[in-house]
Write a structure and sequence with these properties.
Layout (H helix, E strand, L loop, with lengths): L15 H29 L15 H20 L12 H10 L7 H13 L9 H12 L3
Amino acid sequence: MSHPQFKLRWVQPDKREEVSNLFLSKVIRAASTDSSTASNSAHDNTSDEDYGYDATPVTLNETLSMENRAKIEAINYLEDPSKDIKSLSKYPLVYALFVRYNTDLPSSAPVERLFSTGGLILTPRRNKLSDATFEKLLMLKTNKL
């Protein structure tokens, strides 16, 4: 949903409300983590002489206004007809979600690990596994806790 090309176009009409609410909650969570990070860095920048007494804590009103701004930004993003990636510059919280969920892994290690696990599953004694069964076994093996 954070990609402007797709937004809600892929969601069935009867599920749009539910998916929109999930997206809103993710944007609000991103806003709250950004503000907590900012308040922590502001707290870290206080001098030793202040002993942290000058740092102003985040109040309930600030938290509510931050949530409201996040909701407004998410709703405006969903209603924006633009399909261009550059339109994300108007929505910094949505852009943060876009970067988080649409960034490739910089390493091939997870893929190599997957192939290694596949080699452990597809042994000479199990050479007649169907593709579906092999895929299920591989997903079970790699996603176990």
